[in-house]
Design goal:
Blueprint (H helix, E strand, L loop, with lengths): L1 E8 L2 H13 L5 E6 L4 H17 L4 E6 L5 H10 L8 E5 L3 H10 L5 H12 L18
Parallel strand pairs: 1-2, 1-3, 3-4
């Protein structure tokens, strides 16, 4: 089973989880870690380490969803991912958004965290679209 950490600048991670709960209910395999000005980088490192320890329990891997590549959340997550001492394995992706968070449900049962990361990116890519006018009116009815 794959567990997840959403790691972002500011309160974005917590807001994504709150919105995810509104749509799906509890997301027991997902934790949020937010880099705040108040806690700073060292506080983020401590929070991330605690979240990684908690999400690692009973997991085959931990997939970290970061807001952007090369920022502090990404760098801290990559330190864990590339450490030979980290168990279970950790994979890191950038560009977390609401559809990606909701799609985590599709890869939770995977055993290989790197395959889960690749699959999650495949599932999320089609959700990145530009609005274009349509000839027929769309309804909100499903």
């Amino acid at each position: 089973m794959i567990h997840f950490i959403v790691a972002t600048h500011g309160p974005l991670a917590a807001a994504l989880l709150e919105s995810g709960r509104m749509v799906y209910g509890e997301l027991p395999c997902v934790r949020a870690v937010c880099l705040t000005e108040r806690a700073g980088i060292e506080g983020f490192r401590r929070d991330f380490s605690a979240a990684l320890e908690a999400t690692s329990v009973s997991a085959d891997g931990v997939l970290v969803l970061c807001d952007m590549q090369s920022g502090t959340p990404w760098n801290v997550a990559c330190e864990a991912a590339f450490s030979p001492h980290t168990q279970p394995p950790v994979a890191v992706v950038a560009g977390v958004n609401f559809p990606m968070l909701l799609q985590t449900d599709e890869v939770t049962d995977a055993r290989d965290v790197h395959q889960a990361a690749a699959r999650l990116l495949e599932l999320t890519l089609p959700t990145l679209v530009q609005a274009k006018p349509v000839d027929t009116a769309q309804t909100d009815d499903f």
